[in-house]
């Protein structure tokens, strides 16, 4: 598949999506969001893809936010639509994918960029990364889930401060906050993420998809996460991966999961 604003490559079970508008610091315009929707959906339905890594092109930015030039003239109605459509097409999609998504934050992750990274299942940052939700400095608020996901990851008080000050956290600070799991030199970022992906790929992809669903259930209004877990746990017993995993253990060999 050819895209204009992103690159999507598949190699050894890993789908690598690179947002590719380096002259605009990979800002998310509408066309990029639509292409990301297509690429994430395609990788998620491709059985050969076990883990997705999303990153930005160039050495400066993961994504420096939603494309400010595109919404500068919007009215209230258009603003609301922008947030609703973006959340549906990209941010909620990524959060709820059954395929694990790692955000490899290779520089600025601001506004929609940090919101995309937070929608991913976990984050790894390069040592030059800077992260923040600076929307109030533009007279708006985060609109791609930032007011919800940042407090979930860093706690309410820290999120309040980050959003109110429109400040940026550096990579080490972000790690202390729990916003990113690891900080590595920029040149090693993608290989480091591929290393984590390799560990994930040894396990049952069906069980992982169910685990993602159960973990996410904790953050859904009106959903009892424990009940979601109980159901998903039960469902595991009907999968070929469960048969293989338990049989391999008892036979003292490595499991070869069919992913079904
Ligand atoms: N939307 C649209 N264009 C953006 C952008 C965004 N969010 N972020 C950067 N760009 C563009 C700049 O307009 C500039 O384009 P130009 O060369 O055509 O003028 C180009 O990317 C390079 O950015 P520049 O600001 O010159 O780089 P810098 O190194 O001086 O500063 C940042 C880097 C990230 C601090 C700065 O670009 C910035 O503050 N960006 C906006 C961040 C933001 O508020 N995001 C939230 C949006 S809701």
From TrEMBL:
* Record flagged with keyword Lyase: yes
Q: List the Pfam families hit by this protein, alphabetically.
A: ECH_1 (PF00378)
GO BP: fatty acid beta-oxidation
Q: Name one GO molecular function term.
A: lyase activity
* Entry superkingdom: Bacteria
Q: Does the keyword NADP apply?
A: no
InterPro entries, alphabetized: ClpP/crotonase-like_dom_sf, Enoyl-CoA_hyd/isom_CS, Enoyl-CoA_hydra/iso, Enoyl-CoA_hydra_C
Record key words, sorted: Lyase
Identify its protein family.
Belongs to the enoyl-CoA hydratase/isomerase family.
Q: Can you name this protein?
A: Enoyl-CoA hydratase
Q: Which organism is it from?
A: Flavobacterium album
């Amino acid at each position: 598949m050819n895209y204009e604003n992103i690159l999507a490559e598949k190699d050894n079970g890993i789908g690598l999506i690179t947002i590719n508008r380096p002259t605009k610091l990979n800002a998310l315009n509408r066309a990029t969001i639509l292409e990301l929707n297509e690429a994430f959906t395609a990788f998620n339905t491709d059985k050969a893809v076990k883990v997705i890594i999303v990153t930005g092109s160039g050495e400066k930015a993961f994504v420096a936010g939603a494309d400010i030039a595109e919404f500068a003239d919007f009215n209230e109605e258009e603003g609301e639509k922008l947030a609703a459509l973006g959340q549906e097409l990209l941010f909620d999609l990524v959060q709820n994918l059954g395929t694990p998504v790692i955000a490899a934050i290779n520089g600025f992750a601001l506004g929609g960029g940090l919101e995309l990274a937070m929608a991913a299942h976990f984050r790894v940052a390069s040592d030059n990364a800077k992260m923040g939700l600076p929307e109030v400095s533009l007279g708006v608020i985060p609109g791609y889930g930032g007011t919800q996901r940042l407090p979930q990851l860093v706690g309410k008080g820290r999120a309040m401060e980050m959003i109110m000050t429109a400040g940026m956290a550096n990579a080490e600070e972000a790690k202390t906050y729990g916003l990113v799991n690891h900080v590595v030199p920029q040149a090693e970022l993608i290989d480091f993420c591929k290393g984590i992906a390799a560990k994930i790929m040894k396990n049952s992809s069906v069980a992982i998809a169910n685990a993602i669903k159960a973990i996410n259930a904790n953050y859904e209004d009106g959903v009892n996460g424990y009940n979601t877990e109980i159901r998903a746990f039960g469902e595991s017993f009907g999968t070929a991966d469960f048969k293989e995993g338990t049989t391999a253990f008892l036979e003292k060999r490595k499991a070869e999961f069919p992913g079904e």
